[in-house]
Design a protein that fits this description.
Strand 4, helix 2 and strand 5 (86-91) form a beta-alpha-beta unit. It is built from seven helices and six strands, in the order αββββαββααααα. The protein has helices at residues 2-7, 64-80, 104-123, 141-144, 146-149, 154-167, 172-175; strands spanning 10-12, 16-26, 31-42, 47-55, 86-91, 96-101. The longest helix has 20 residues, at 104-123. Bound molecules: iron/sulfur cluster.
Length: 176
């Protein structure tokens, strides 16, 4: 599924043009990225963008996939000077495509998320990982290691403290 998204560039059907790996940016939200797929649906005299995001797993309990899709739509709106009311999420496990409406609540949540990301970047402090159900389907699981680095457990507290402390320890190579 993702191979096709990564290799194909353009497909045309009667009333739909499909573009893969579309670069995105929003100056207003301070976001940059790439959409898996943007469909362009033929309307009377124009082609209307409709972002589609492909996920390997199944729908999640929170809004994170919807926020990602909405951010893509908001980037496209700014780039193409248009309004996008809907997009879709496709889940590999269920093989189902779900239409997502970009309503005021989802747009507000997306803007707030972008703002929080910038606050984190500006502060230079990475939030501590907290292991939860959503970690199982997170693509960062192997890098993040939330079970080891979470501050909840005793061993993890020790490791976390050790890792942070070691940042300020002198480099043994320089001590010689
Ligand atoms: S693996 Fe890390 S980044 Fe991913 S959801 Fe869990 S805590 Fe967050």
């Amino acid at each position: 599924m993702h191979d096709k998204v990564d290799t194909a560039k353009l497909e045309k059907r009667r009333d739909i043009r499909i573009e893969y790996g579309v670069p995105l940016r929003s100056l207003r939200l301070g976001l940059i990225g790439k959409a898996d797929v943007v469909e362009f649906h033929r309307e009377v005299n124009s082609w209307h963008p409709f972002p589609v995001e492909y996920k390997r797993g199944k729908p999640k309990g929170d809004n994170c996939d919807k926020v990602q899709l909405c951010a893509q739509a908001m980037c496209l709106e700014e780039m193409l000077n248009c309004t996008i009311t809907k997009g879709a999420l496709f889940y590999g496990t269920t093989r189902r495509r779900e239409d997502i409406v970009f309503d005021v609540a989802l747009r507000t949540e997306t803007e707030e998320t972008a703002k929080k990301v910038h606050e984190i970047i500006t502060s230079g402090i990475t939030p501590k990982p907290e292991y939860s159900k959503k970690c199982k389907s997170c693509s960062l699981l192997e890098l993040c290691m939330p079970k080891v680095c979470s501050t909840k457990g005793k061993a993890s507290k020790y490791l976390y403290g050790f890792i942070n402390q070691s940042d300020s320890l002198p480099d043994p190579a320089l001590e010689k």
